[in-house]
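Hey, resending since the last one bounced:
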Amino acid sequence: MCSVRDHWSEYQATGAEVVGISTDSVDSHDKFSRKYDLPLRLLSDSEGKVRDLYGANSLIPGRTGRSEFVIDPQGRIAYKKVRPMGLFRPSDEEVLDAIRAAQAG
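The structure tokens again:
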């Protein structure tokens, strides 16, 4: 999330809506967002329904893998990358390229 914050102007330039989702509580999100001065919304998926729907599961049962999704203007998944172990951070440039490609159709 801090990397997204640090590249926020690039994300904004795409016009895409960028949100973070995890199974953490709303209170936890509020604290995290304030602590790291995040410009994007964080959504709580406390029951894991979104995680399960999008197949963003970790190798650890009941946990969420570090994932990025780009939804195109027609509501379809145009890009999906799930890291079940979360060892590597997402590439902002890769995600930004996927956003631009989805917008181009």
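Residues 73 and 99 are 10 Å apart (CA to CA).

Sorry for the duplicate.
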